[in-house]
Design a protein that fits this description.
The complex is a heterodimer.
Chain A lengths: L18 E10 L2 E11 L4 E5 L6 H8 L7 E6 L2 E3 L4 H6 L2 E4 L11 H5 L6 E2 L2 E2 L1 H14 L15 H14 L4 E5 L7 H16 L3 E5 L3 H7 L2 E6 L2 E7 L4 H8 L20 E10 L3 E9 L3 E6 L5 H8 L7 E6 L2 E2 L5 H6 L2 E4 L3 H5 L6 H6 L14 H14 L16 H14 L4 E5 L7 H16 L3 E5 L3 H7 L2 E6 L2 E7 L5 H9 L2 H4 L1
Parallel strand pairs in A: 3-10, 3-11, 6-9, 9-10, 15-20, 15-21, 18-19, 19-20
Antiparallel strand pairs in A: 1-2, 1-4, 4-5, 7-8, 11-12, 13-14, 13-16, 16-17, 21-22
Helix pairs in contact in A: 4-5, 13-14
Chain B lengths: L3 H7 L3 H16 L7 H7 L1 H16 L6 H26 L7 H17 L5 H24 L5 H20 L4 E2 L2 H6 L2 E2 L2 E2 H19 L1 H11 L1 H6 L4 H27 L1 E2 L7 H11 L11 H20 L4 H27 L1
Antiparallel strand pairs in B: 1-4, 2-3
Helix pairs in contact in B: 1-2, 4-15, 5-10, 5-11, 5-13, 5-14, 5-15, 6-7, 6-8, 6-13, 7-8, 7-13, 10-11, 11-13, 14-15, 15-16
The chains are: A alpha/beta, B mainly alpha.
Chain lengths: 513, 345
């Protein structure tokens, strides 16, 4: 066992650990994402990994699951060093991962899914009765009562998750990695899952649990390992107060990375007004105004409905309640063209899937939003569009050979600048930014922030969704915090701290009252 | 492209400095190269193949490079290529149209029926044929864009429906075409009219694809429909237009075919959709969408027709011809994969 007193779960313990990640470090390119972290998982215990997005939690569990190889450090199984070359090797050592995205075949039955790859055979044919029997016993173990012949796709998310757990246990998993298992569950379903966790605890299965819902930790966590920027911060008992957990997770100085220059204008005009916006099952009763020159940050956990709200405003998805008004003009529902005509520009969450036509040139990608408006009698204005695209590429310092290069060959930061450039070319005045700096290196990030400053200085308004709290705090003039599809609260730039935002985003509002 | 110095000045942090400098040197180390034979072959494989093929046939058989044979090739190419122009729109936009052969037959049959049974003037009968293609294509487009049917399925259904309607209208028998339609199959001076129509159709198709908003949008929709939609392009309308154009071009090809025979045949152009798809793919379009050119499609159609023509001249049976065509398609698509590899690396 590790003798480093600064690492997770090194306190005296009656049992030997099932798995130990010992002094693990891992880099991706020049970025060190895990720095000398040690974690133990003990039989019958729930070890919680806690940290912000980007703290290194998912890298750590992927190392434990055999997806990534550590650069240095050891993986010990029952104190024997092993190499987990791939997920199959990890499974052979009894380590199974329940991912947020489930690995089930929706069209196949519960029994077939549980026994996938191990289908019992008789005379070369599938032995159906044996298949059912084994699947049934796997389900009994966690007390899930569903018909094993039901196609998995017909079950709810919570039940599918339990099927996946049953499957993992039926391959003799001794260690379960639960990666945000409650993110998509209702309160009742979560309680159900926790009952299963208790049963597994009694069966002395070791569990590594990741959750952004702080209130859950006290409920099932034995021990909490807090990571920040890839480094071990503290190990505390599961009963630790939520405020203390938040304090441990966040809190670092980030002043200079975010060069926000707030615009001081007298009586700025309200540019974008969202009133009572709702979409069944996704978000409800969202209202806010954004003034000229203002950046409104929307914070919240993954799944809080932030992206959905942005998409509805941009006309990408239809909403079923409320209204979006730009400079006094009410926008029709689900009409991207009308939103663009009103001055909205939308930088979507995933630039490769939603933002760019990767095989098309930089020139074409910059020009899509203005292709039609710049045309005459259905003919594209090649020369004019190209001239504008050249100017914008230069202004945004998009680094490339030439403008006719496929945009696929540009770096992530330059691709992202091109998505921005499209809206600058369209003279958009209301920018909706969804994770504007995701997958962008530090230098390009600052360039994008400067661009946001320029846009607001010119009287534009920005709504920015970001999962990076420092970015939201550093660049927003005002912060809206969402939780479970609703506005949990609003903070001014002056009042906003990481603690305050996290408290609104992650705490159970029911318990607050 | 700015030099490394200007970039360093504007870089805010040491980290970006290093990065930018690296990028610039990488850029500088890869200047505009001279003639890259490998790249040329990868990008113009079909054209090179066509030239090699023609040269080989010229050497092997004296019958190949003769006026009548070349005009014959021209006439045969016209039908395949015009069908394939429509198919180029569809494939560039990321879809597929299996119904073009049937739509060609139906359009010619409607035109003939209107002329013979309804007594429509010949010019109007010709227009009725074109209109039929446009309408059927629009139905394909609506089924695909608004009915959310995959285009493969929507047009597979139409392949059967349009052929069936052709048989219903004609009662399985050929119908005489209007003189205006027969004119399309005749000669304009020394040159067969189909070749003239082919040249005009190629110019129009190329113009649509390269110069119009709809044409440029097709590349965006085929390259990434979601990104196109989020950029405000009317993806559904574009899809409908694409299939309508494919129907219109199919109708034109059907009328040419009927004009040559002076009659609309119920089984005309059966299986031609596969030739059209092959021509487009040999011409360098990607079935994944977003890539394709009219000039490539013409070369693709020529490759198909010249191979058939050459094998005929060499007295190879049509059975073996099918084998050869299949191999050529496989080679051409292999080239497409190679091309995409070189592009992404």
């Amino acid at each position: 066992m590790s003798d480093r007193s600064s690492n997770c779960n090194v306190a005296e313990h009656p049992d030997e650990p099932l798995v130990t990640l010992k002094n693990i470090s891992k880099s991706f390119g020049p970025v060190k994402v895990i720095k000398d972290v040690t974690v133990n998982v003990y039989p019958g215990q729930v070890q919680v990994l806690l940290g912000e997005n980007g703290a290194g939690k998912s890298t750590l569990i992927k190392i434990m699951a055999g997806v990534y190889q550590p650069d240095s450090g050891q993986i010990l199984i029952k104190n024997e060093p092993v190499t987990l070359a791939n997920t199959r090797a990890a499974e052979a050592h009894g380590i199974a991962t329940i991912h947020q995205e489930l690995n089930l075949v929706g069209s196949m039955s519960v029994a077939e899914n549980i026994m996938l790859g191990r289908t019992p055979k008789k005379f070369g044919m599938v032995d159906r009765s044996e298949l059912r029997r084994q699947a049934k016993s796997a389900l009994d173990r966690i007390g899930l009562r569903v018909d094993v012949d039901t196609p998995v796709g017909e079950l709810g998310i919570a039940q599918q998750q339990l099927v996946e757990i049953a499957k993992a246990l039926s391959i003799n998993a001794r260690v379960l990695i639960l990666d945000e298992p409650t993110a998509a569950l209702t309160k009742h379903e979560t309680e159900n899952l926790f009952r299963v966790v208790e049963e597994l605890r009694a069966e002395r299965v070791g569990m590594l649990f990741i959750s952004h819902h702080l209130e859950e930790i006290a409920e099932i966590g034995d021990s909490v390992c807090v990571l920040r920027d890839g480094e071990f911060v503290a190990e505390v008992p599961g009963s630790t107060h939520e405020d203390e957990l938040v304090r441990l997770m966040v809190g670092r100085s980030i002043d200079d990375q975010f060069p926000r220059r707030a615009i001081e204008a007298e009586n700025p005009q309200i540019v974008l007004s969202v009133e009572g916006l709702g979409s069944k099952g996704r978000f409800s009763n969202i209202s806010f105004d954004v003034k000229a020159g203002e950046i409104l940050g929307i914070a919240g956990l993954v799944g809080a409905g932030r992206t959905e709200v942005i998409r509805a405003i941009a006309g990408v998805d239809r909403h079923d309640a409320g209204s979006v008004t730009v400079r006094g003009r009410r926008l029709p529902k689900g009409d991207v063209g009308a939103a663009i005509a009103a001055g909205i520009g939308h930088v979507p969450e995933d630039r490769k899937v939603q933002g760019l036509v990767l095989d098309a040139t930089v020139n074409e990608n910059l020009g899509y939003a203005t292709l039609k408006s710049s045309s005459r009698m259905g003919l594209a204005d090649f020369a004019g569009q190209r001239q504008k695209a050249e100017d914008i590429a230069q202004k945004l310092r998009i680094r490339m050979h030439n403008i006719d290069q496929p945009i696929r060959s540009l770096s992530g930061g330059n691709q992202q600048k091109a998505v921005f450039g499209r809206w600058i070319m369209a003279a958009s005045t209301v920018l909706l930014l969804d994770e504007p700096t995701r997958g962008v290196d530090v230098g390009a990030k600052v360039e994008i922030y400067e661009l946001m400053n320029q846009i607001t200085a010119a009287g534009g308004a920005i709504v920015m969704v970001s999962s990076e709290l420092p970015e939201v705090l550093g660049m927003s003039d005002r912060i809206l915090v969402m939780r479970d599809g609703e506005v949990a609260g609003e903070l001014s730039a002056a009042d906003a701290t990481q603690d305050a935002v996290m408290t609104l985003a992650a705490l159970n509002t029911d318990e607050d009252q | 492209m700015k030099g490394p110095n200007t970039e360093m000045k504007t870089s805010p942090s040491p980290l970006t400095q290093t990065r930018n400098t690296n990028m610039s040197t990488a850029t500088l180390a890869k200047p505009q190269q001279g003639f890259d034979i490998k790249k040329f072959l990868a990008n113009n494989g079909a054209l090179v193949g066509l030239l090699v093929l023609a040269l080989a046939l010229f050497i092997i058989t004296p019958d190949f490079l003769t006026g009548p044979n070349l005009l014959n090739i021209g006439i045969q190419v016209s039908t395949v290529a015009i069908l394939a122009f429509g198919m180029t729109f569809v494939i560039v936009a990321g879809g597929i149209d299996l119904s073009v052969g049937s739509v060609a037959a139906l359009s010619a049959m409607v035109s003939g029926y209107m002329f013979v049974s309804s007594g429509l003037p010949g010019g109007l009968a010709l227009l009725a044929g074109l209109l039929t293609g446009l309408v059927v294509g629009t139905v394909n487009g609506v089924a695909s864009a608004y009915g959310k049917l995959p285009s493969f399925i929507a047009t597979l259904a139409m392949l059967s429906i349009a052929r069936g309607l052709t048989l219903v209208i004609s009662d399985g028998r050929p119908i005489k075409t209007a003189p205006e339609v027969s004119f399309l199959g005749g000669n304009s001076g020394p040159i067969p009219t189909p070749i003239v129509v082919l040249v005009i159709a190629a110019a129009v198709a190329s113009f649509i694809l390269n110069r119009t908003v709809v044409g440029r949008s097709m590349y965006a929709v085929g390259g990434n429909a979601e990104a196109a939609r989020l950029s405000g392009l009317p993806v559904k309308q574009i899809t409908v237009i694409v299939f309508a154009l494919a129907g219109l071009f199919a109708a034109l090809a059907g009328l040419l075919l009927a004009g040559r025979l002076d009659s609309a045949q119920p089984q005309a152009a059966a299986g031609y959709e596969l030739d059209a798809i092959a021509a487009v793919v040999i011409g360098g379009a990607s079935l994944a969408g977003g890539v394709g050119r009219i000039s490539g499609t013409i070369v693709g159609a020529l490759v198909l027709v010249v191979i058939r023509n050459g094998l005929n001249l060499l007295n190879v049976t049509s059975f073996w011809q099918q084998v050869v065509i299949g191999v050529v398609i496989a080679l051409a698509v292999g080239m497409d994969v190679l091309r995409r590899k070189t592009r992404s690396s």
